């Protein structure tokens, strides 16, 4: 690889600084900080403030009343989604670990959301998603098993109303997605997902450089 010249190094450094600034731009309250701390305690990654802010904005832009989330975690992404949704909106969130969902319930209450604003379903996403209503969702957020992302995409196309949004967290895979070296199966699956979304005639895609990469697409009407 050729050496970067001084000006190129400055541009690269400035861009990285700008991305870091943008990703930390959203201020977080006590409920979000509590949920993040619980995630750290159980060794679970959570969406960055920048990613959370993007999810909140997308939910608000879609005037979302019904959102499906794959991967409840300890509630960080769920709080952001609920903040952007309509006051009468309901978040349906799926996770393999019921104990994590209990932490998320506590976080949602601390954030001021009534108990009827979220529906918690424990279980494997690919077992749960087929039971959800066709065309019944304004937004689907996927933050589960990366090996299943293509399957989530297929289910999302069924679940979304025309104009609805699907988002996939972590598609940069800590830089491995664009690394030319040999990569594990989950990175290969993410690459397949990126190609599928970009080439789909049913979707209008965008890749947002927030957090570890947020792949978003709107379903055509």
Q: How would you characterize this protein structure?
A:
- The chain has 221 residues and is of the alpha/beta class.
- The protein has helices at 6-23, 30-41, 49-61, 76-84, 98-110, 125-128, 149-159, 185-199, and strands at 66-70, 90-95, 118-122, 137-142, 160-169, 203-208, 214-219.
- β1, α4 and β2 form a beta-alpha-beta unit.
- α2 packs antiparallel against α5 and α3 runs parallel beside α4.
- The longest helix has 18 residues, at 6-23.
- The N and C termini lie far apart (45 Å).
- The model has no long low-confidence stretch (mean pLDDT 94).
| Tally of DSSP β-strands | 7
The stretches of 5 or more residues where confidence is low (pLDDT under 50) are: none
Query: N-to-C SSE series?
Result: HHHEHEHEHEHEHEE
- The computed structural class is alpha/beta
Count of helix runs: 8
Distance separating the two termini: 45 Å
The biggest sheet, with number of strands, parallel, antiparallel or mixed sense and barrel status, is: 7 strands, mixed
Radius of gyration: 18 Å
Which percent range fits the helix content? 40-55%
Name the shape in a single word: globular
What is this structure's SSE topology?
Elements: H1 6-23, H2 30-41, H3 49-61, E1 66-70, H4 76-84, E2 90-95, H5 98-110, E3 118-122, H6 125-128, E4 137-142, H7 149-159, E5 160-169, H8 185-199, E6 203-208, E7 214-219
Parallel strand pairs: 1-2, 1-4, 2-3, 4-5
Antiparallel strand pairs: 5-7, 6-7
Helix pairs in contact: 2-5, 3-4
């Amino acid at each position: 690889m050729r050496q970067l010249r001084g000006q190129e190094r400055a541009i690269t450094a400035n861009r990285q600084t700008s991305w870091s600034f943008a990703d930390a731009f959203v201020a977080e309250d006590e409920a979000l900080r509590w949920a993040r701390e619980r995630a750290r305690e159980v060794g679970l990654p959570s969406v960055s403030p920048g990613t959370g802010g993007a999810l909140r904005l997308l939910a608000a832009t879609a005037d979302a009343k019904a959102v499906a989330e794959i991967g409840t975690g300890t509630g960080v992404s769920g709080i952001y989604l609920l903040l952007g949704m309509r006051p009468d909106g309901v978040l349906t969130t799926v996770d393999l670990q019921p104990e994590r969902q209990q932490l998320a319930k506590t976080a949602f209450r601390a954030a001021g959301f009534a108990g009827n604003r979220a529906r918690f379903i424990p279980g494997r996403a690919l077992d749960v998603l087929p039971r959800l209503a066709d065309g019944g969702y304004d937004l689907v957020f996927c933050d589960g098993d990366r090996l299943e992302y293509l399957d989530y995409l297929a289910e999302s196309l069924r679940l979304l109303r025309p104009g609805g949004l699907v988002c996939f967290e972590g598609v940069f895979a800590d830089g491995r997605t664009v690394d030319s070296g040999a990569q594990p199966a989950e990175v290969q699956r993410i690459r397949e997902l990126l190609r599928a979304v970009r080439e789909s005639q049913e979707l209008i895609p965008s890749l947002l450089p927030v957090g570890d990469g947020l792949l978003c697409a709107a379903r055509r009407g």
